[in-house]
Design brief:
The chain has 200 residues and is of the alpha+beta class. It has 10 helices and 5 strands, in the order H-H-H-H-H-H-H-H-E-E-E-H-H-E-E. The two termini are 26 Å apart.
Length: 200
């Protein structure tokens, strides 16, 4: 299983905008975009004044942005794109729906993690059940009607006890439903293009 392990702040700097890859840090003055909003590398400052970007360059930047936000590698992203082309409707909207339906993203959108990377780690460590079965695969596709619940063994941990207080003020998307009583959430409907808050 491949994943990006280098500094994530340079990814935001490369795209020239906040991708919120570090959760709360991205909202603080410590954010790399706040300190120096130039592409990484020795020629980063010069790259800001380069000539107009081509259509291909714009498409590449948007594709890279989507990959980096959801934490998927190139091979996996191509599989998602092929699946999106097979589905009915606009390919771009279907692709974003597939990415939003990943288990690690759903856990993040429910508020159990500050970032998608943290949600991915929580899933990998086996803290969640999907429809009563332990699931530790971040790329698991959640379908409408599926119930994601924090496992009973995990609910006694300090992290989830503290998280219960944070969840009271978290804004949940309309396509998800959160139950604070048993620390669970469910997908009410498949996410649409309008539900994606990322500027793509």
């Amino acid at each position: 299983m491949a994943r990006y392990t280098d500094a994530v702040c340079r990814l935001c700097r490369r795209e020239g905008q906040k991708l919120f890859l570090k959760g709360e840090r991205c909202l603080s003055p410590k954010c790399a975009i706040e300190k120096r909003n130039t592409p990484p590398g020795a020629h980063g400052k010069k790259a800001v004044f380069k000539r107009k970007m081509s259509d291909y360059g714009m498409q590449l930047r948007e594709k890279q942005k989507a990959r980096r936000v959801y934490g998927v590698m190139e091979k996996q992203f191509r599989r998602y794109f092929k699946e999106a082309t097979r589905r009915k409707g606009l390919t771009g909207a279907q692709l974003l729906s597939i990415l939003e339906s990943r288990l690690d993203n759903v856990v993040y959108r429910l508020g159990f993690g500050d970032s998608r990377a943290q949600a991915r780690q929580l899933v990998r460590h086996g803290h969640f059940d999907v429809n009563g079965r332990k699931t530790n695969i971040p790329s698991f596709q959640v379908a409408p009607g599926d119930v994601i619940k924090v496992r009973d063994n995990s609910r006694v941990m300090t992290y989830f006890k503290d998280r219960a207080q944070v969840l009271q003020s978290v804004r949940i998307p309309a396509w998800l439903n959160l139950s604070l009583a048993d620390m669970s959430g469910s997908m009410v409907a498949a996410p649409t293009r309008e539900d994606v808050e990322i500027p793509l």
